[in-house]
Write a structure and sequence with these properties.
disordered C terminus; single chain; alpha/beta
Length: 232
């Protein structure tokens, strides 16, 4: 049985609300340390931060992905200089929807070139806005571009967040060669365990304490009832 501590160890404890303050980020870090999470994920404007030993993740081209590749690359480079250990970049979802996976790969590769090899690059594909063929093509493009993870969602797109189906398809496509991060609308222990069972190796959570409490209380993946996946 998966324990709450085991789940916490793969959590990016996340605060990306535009109204967030430095005090909110400090509280996030303190809570993350208390909960035993892997990292905290904050907006790039909040960096640098004292993460008290936790890894630091941030976002690039967030949340729309509709930013020129060179701007995403510059944003990523600045975030690394400001202390980020991990970069979660958003692809141009419209490009993926047209099936131009060469362009998707080029976009990711531009960011990869600005992120040192010892730093982690995650690629947010906005899976709820893509069909299965587009999810597979985008995951293959991410792998070819040198990404370390593929990630389901920003948590801000109206089509929704993570789903068990998308996570399973992404995990099957990357075959363990890349990590899979599930994020967006994972609000209880059952949902978190269902994502892990489907192949997620990292979770993006904002309500981490409630999720871990659910796991500790004995939630199972079978308890998960899929919703619309909306919201972070």
């Amino acid at each position: 049985m998966t324990t709450a501590a085991e789940v916490a160890a793969i959590v990016d404890h996340t605060l990306l609300k535009p109204e967030s303050t430095q005090a909110d980020v400090a509280a996030l870090v303190d809570e993350g340390v208390r909960l035993g999470v892997f990292s905290v994920c904050v907006s790039p404007s909040m960096l640098p931060i004292d993460a008290k030993g936790l890894k630091v993740a941030t976002v690039v081209g967030f949340p729309s992905g509709k930013v020129k590749s060179e701007i995403k690359a510059a944003e990523a480079a600045r975030a690394i200089a400001d202390g980020a250990d991990e970069i979660d970049m958003v692809i141009d979802v419209g490009t993926a929807r047209t099936g131009d996976f060469a362009a998707v790969q080029a976009d990711i590769a531009a960011v990869r070139a600005s992120v040192p090899a010892d730093k982690i690059l995650k690629v947010i594909i906005e899976s709820a806005a893509l069909n299965d063929e587009q999810i597979v093509g985008t995951c293959r493009a991410a792998e070819a571009a040198g990404a370390d993870f593929v990630k389901t969602s920003t948590g801000f797109h109206p089509t929704g967040g993570a789903s068990v189906h998308a996570v399973r398809l992404m995990a099957e496509t990357v075959g363990g060669r890349l990590g899979v991060k599930a994020s967006g609308a994972i609000r209880d222990g059952a949902a978190a365990l269902a994502m892990i069972e489907a192949g997620a190796t990292r979770l993006g959570l904002s309500g981490t304490a409630a999720v871990l409490d659910g796991v500790a209380a004995g939630a199972t993946a079978a308890d998960h009832v899929a919703g619309d996946g909306g919201g972070y």
